[in-house]
Amino acid sequence: MIASLLVGGFGHVVTDGSLLLALPVAVLAGLVSFASPCVLPLVPGYLGYLGAALGASSGRATAVGRGGPGAVGQGVRTRDDASRGRVLLGVMLFVAGFTVVFVAFGALAGTLGGTLARWVDPVSRVLGVVVVVMGLAFAGLVPALARERRPHLAPRAGAWGAALLGATFGLGWTPCIGPTLAAILTLSLDGGSAARGALLAVAFCVGLGVPFVLVALGLQRSARARNWLRRHRIAVMRVGGGLLVVLGLALVTGVWGMWAAWLQGLLTGGGAFVPAV
């Protein structure tokens, strides 16, 4: 159903200035969510569970095969490659799990936007205030909204367990993901289609999921990147919260609509830019 909605609405949304502005914002929101203190410290634990769920072993081969010492090295590499491959598969299933959840939320928000199309401007402005508050909470300036509420569920091992863990992660709505996701759902209302909401949710999941995959691939720089993010986690939170506040203010003041109209005019040759405030 979501696929058909995406295909049916593609011709319209591809030149939608508001959507083109929202897509990079959604990706950035996902990246900021990954770097947040609620998610980043959990990454090693998630990877460890996903590796165990699919039978990946962290140990190294010790037996000497018939081929002699050279064969041992080859066997070690083979085992390491297989283990890394299983972890990567688990992470991809994990990402798929929370993507399904977020896309469903996005499609629902887009559909709701269609219902509220007549009042989309005042609703967007009101929700802009909510986004500002969410941004302040993300930056740690609203302690009452900074409490972690995450369901603790340990799915059974196996591929379905990895996907279920991803869905659980998505449903957890930790305060660190909640503000950024709430902002994306707010942007999904503008345009009033499930296709738009689903597409923005996919962009959000790209930003959130790609770092998981890169870490699972065992890139040498991934450990350095995680350490850097840990050292600068407060700055990440401040910058991420500031971006949400700017986005919320743009929605409240109508500047977001002005930017969208300007961009759409550039793409379609629509002529002069007319402020939409």
Secondary-structure map with pairings?
Layout: H1 2-13, H2 17-35, H3 43-53, H4 69-115, H5 120-138, H6 159-172, H7 178-189, H8 194-216, H9 220-231, H10 233-253, H11 255-268
Number of domains: 1
Query: How would a textbook summarize the main sheet?
Result: none
Distance from first to last alpha carbon: 36 Å
Overall, the morphology is globular
State the helical fraction.
over 70%
Structural class: mainly alpha
Q: Count up the helices.
A: 11
Number of strands: 0
The overall pLDDT, averaged over residues, is 75
**Radius of gyration of CA atoms, rounded to a whole number:** 22 Å
Determine the strand fraction and express it as a percent band.
under 5%
Extract low-pLDDT stretches. 1-15, 57-66, 271-277
Oligomerization state: single chain
Question: Could you spell the SSE succession in H and E letters?
Answer: HHHHHHHHHHH
Tags for this model:
single chain, 277 residues, mainly alpha, 11 helices, globular
Report on this structure.
The chain has eleven helices and no strands. With 277 residues, it is an all-alpha fold. It has one domain. The relative contact order is 0.21.
In short:
The chain contains eleven helices and no strands. The chain has 277 residues and is mainly alpha-helical.
